[in-house]
Amino acid sequence: MDKRDSKIKEKLVSVKHSTEVKAFKEQTAIMKQRGRRWRLSYKWRALRS
C-alpha cells in the first residue's frame, strides 16, 4: 500500500504542473462565468415578466 501511495503521489505532483491541468482550470473558470451570467439573465427575465 505504501509503494502504491508513493507512486500515486509522484504522479499527482507531475500532473499539477502540466499544461493540461492549467487548461482544465481555465475551462472551469469560463464555465463558472457563463453559469453566473445565465443565472443573472434568468433572474432578470423572471423579474421582467
Brief synopsis:
With 49 residues, the protein is mainly alpha-helical.
Order of helices and strands: HH
Overall SS class: mainly alpha
Q: Describe the global form.
A: elongated
Characterize the largest beta sheet: strand count, sense, and whether it forms a barrel: none
| Total count of helical runs of at least 4 residues | 2
Q: Name the average pLDDT.
A: 80
Radius of gyration, Cα only, in angstroms?
20 Å
CA-to-CA gap between the ends?
A: 60 Å
What are the segments in which pLDDT stays under 50 over at least 5 consecutive residues? Answer: none
* Fraction in helix: over 70%
Characteristics:
2 helices; mainly alpha; elongated; 49 residues
Description:
- It is a single chain.
- Helix content is 92%, strand content 0%.
- The mean pLDDT is 80.
- The chain has two helices and no strands.
- It has helices at 2-16, 19-48.
- By secondary structure, it is mostly helical.
- The longest helix has 30 residues, at 19-48.
Question: Secondary-structure map with pairings?
Answer:
Blueprint: H1 2-16, H2 19-48
